[in-house]
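[step 3/7] fold_predict: job queued, chain A
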Amino acid sequence: MQFGFCDLAVVPLRREPSDKAEMSTQLLFGDILEVDDQDGSWFHVKVFFDGYHGWVDSKQIREIEEEEFHRLSSSNLFINRQLFADSVSRNGQMIRIPAGCSFYDLKDQVMKIDGQEYVLEGTAFAYAFSGFDDLLKTASDYLSSPYLWGGKTYLGLDCSGFTQVVYKQHGISLLRDAAQQATQGELINFLSDSTPGDLAFFDNAEGHIIHVGILTGNQQVLHCSGKVRIDDIDHQGIYNRELNKYTHSLRLIRRPA
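[step 4/7] structure written:
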């Protein structure tokens, strides 16, 4: 078994071992990986944070020893919350990093991995829940970010990438896809019983959950559909005033923990 560490800002994880293949998600700086297969220069990996699988170009990750992987996986975790303001120095080379990047046992702004030092020029926060008020402020920072299938940064993200990276910045681990996230946390029976920070899930005509958003209170939801936006919501679903119609059908509500 091989192991890896993402030491670039953002790296695509694809469904097939090809640059032309669909991007299913993105690796962010600090993600650690298990390699379980190889096809030429491509590694099939499992992301430690959310268990997601996909193919990554081996040139875009750094291989690490198994002992180092296990050390990192049990280390104190710190998360960057700046949208695109922080930098990491590696041997004098600067890497601009997005929000949601991970650091392990960060001390005096320095992280060491297999003898390599990474110096953070910014602020990373301990991986701990900081309250839904702060979480909603973070989510609002993404307003008008464009939709990008598989994306997880301010420059482009999908609905579940948006919720995952926002909650990650506040010490809550979510799985990657909307249908997976819909299995986590406490089930809330009625919209009237929900509180700001709860997750609302929406299904299609076949009953499959295909969309997720963050409830903000005042019968509104913050979600990524075309772009990150705020829309009205009721027991039926999301109502888009610009289109003058319902766009998503409400299926259930969960309170992440």
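[step 5/7] annotate
The longest helix spans residues 159-168.
The chain has a mean pLDDT of 96.
exit 0
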